[in-house]
Specification:
It contains ten helices and twelve strands. By secondary structure, the chain is of the alpha/beta class. The longest helix is centred in the C-terminal third of the chain and has 24 residues, at 258-281. The structure holds 4'-deoxy-4'-aminopyridoxal-5'-phosphate (PMP). 4'-deoxy-4'-aminopyridoxal-5'-phosphate binds next to helix 3.
């Protein structure tokens, strides 16, 4: 740390993203990317604007907001596109949380929440998941703090039902509830249908997983017009051109190809079911996943050992060192052939 680094960031422990190694032929199952490329239309739309990069992107992101509104069944003024959903999550911490509006989230969840809280000097509380890694919604009923819940949760993959989400939102009318739906398309129920009913609800989603665009960095929030206006104030006070032109058009193109996305989703869900069955056959406990990853622990080998043996064999999964989950690995669902390879490698080393 230099002597110039502001004291306000003393103690800030930054987020550690999953590795992006440059090893050839690696089977990469560590960061929940889609194994499928963006659709042809998505690629074409992005390449059409390459010759216009001398200009700034549209700060209102109209083409994208209008298309998103159409696909989601909301008004364009109820959507805000951002540089990945990480950015809308950070905006939410900046816009709605402070000393008198602290944040609360589970102890095992997306690792960026505590970092955003620390970065913005926001007090926060981490509520332990139950022994079986589910969220006890009673912990959040009328808690009177701003709530951040990933649904499905990460890295567990376990989802709450829409009725449970609604109970939490309804019981905290004076606080913001952020439902982070990065993985919702892989089998959970979206809370977007509740935004007109609850002015305290913000739903965030991303193009990084189901829409094959992790490298383009595109996410968005959906909420009442008032909340979106607040988030816009933060956006225009940080980076009005937060979504670059290529990404904006790629995202628009992807949304024109819903059938492509739906087919990819079907395939990933079916490969997930295959992977779960095979892992269970080999002695793993696998949490019930509604995401494009599974969280699994072996009956005899440690999480670290499974991780290392896979890595030696050119397969990269995500291992966390936090005590409660160190026996587990989070395994992204890739192509069927990749998962078959992983299963045969595991079969060999056990
Ligand atoms: N929420 C959760 C639960 C995630 O796992 C991720 C991916 N790391 C994100 C949000 C952010 O994804 P992105 O910024 O790529 O949209």
């Amino acid at each position: 740390m230099s002597r110039f680094f502001s004291g306000k960031h003393k103690g800030l422990v930054s987020y550690t993203p999953g590795e992006q190694p440059k090893i050839e032929n690696l089977i990469k199952l560590n960061t929940n990317e889609s194994p499928f490329p963006p659709s042809k239309k998505g690629q074409e739309e992005a390449s059409k604007v390459l010759g216009k990069l001398n200009l700034y992107s549209d700060p209102e992101a109209s083409i994208l907001h209008n298309k998103l509104a159409e696909v989601l069944g909301v008004k364009a003024s109820q959507v805000l596109a951002t540089n990945g959903s990480d950015e809308i999550l950070n905006f939410a911490f900046m816009a709605f949380c402070d000393e008198s509006h602290p944040a609360v989230f589970p102890d095992i969840t997306y690792g960026f929440y505590p970092v955003f809280a620390q970065l913005n000097n926001i007090p926060y509380e981490e509520i332990p998941l139950k022994e079986n890694f589910t969220i006890d919604i009673k912990d959040y009923i009328g808690i009177n703090k701003n709530i951040f819940i990933a649904n499905p949760n990460a890295p567990t993959g376990i989802a709450l039902g829409l009725d449970e989400i609604e109970e939490i939102v309804k019981s905290n009318p004076d606080n913001i509830v952020v439902i982070d739906e990065a993985y919702v398309d892989f089998g959970a129920e979206s809370a977007v249908c509740l935004i007109d009913k609850y002015p305290n609800l913000l739903v965030t989603q991303t193009f990084s997983k189901s829409r094959s665009m992790a490298g383009a960095r595109l996410g968005y929030g959906v909420a009442s017009e008032e909340l979106i206006a607040d988030l816009n104030t933060i956006k225009y006070s940080t980076n009005p051109y937060n979504v670059n032109m290529m990404t904006m058009f790629a995202g628009y193109g992807m949304l024109c190809d819903e059938e492509y996305t739906q087919n990819n989703l079907k395939e990933i869900i079916s490969v997930r079911e295959y992977t779960v069955a095979e892992l269970e056959r080999l002695g793993f406990t696998v949490l019930s996943s509604k995401a494009n990853f599974v969280f699994a622990k072996h009956c005899a080998l440690s999480g670290e050992e499974v991780y290392s043996r896979l890595r030696e064999n050119g397969i990269l999964v995500r291992h966390f060192t936090k005590d409660r989950i160190k026996d587990y690995n989070r395994i992204t669902i890739g192509r069927k052939a990749d998962m078959e390879k992983m299963i045969s490698v595991i079969e060999n080393f056990i």
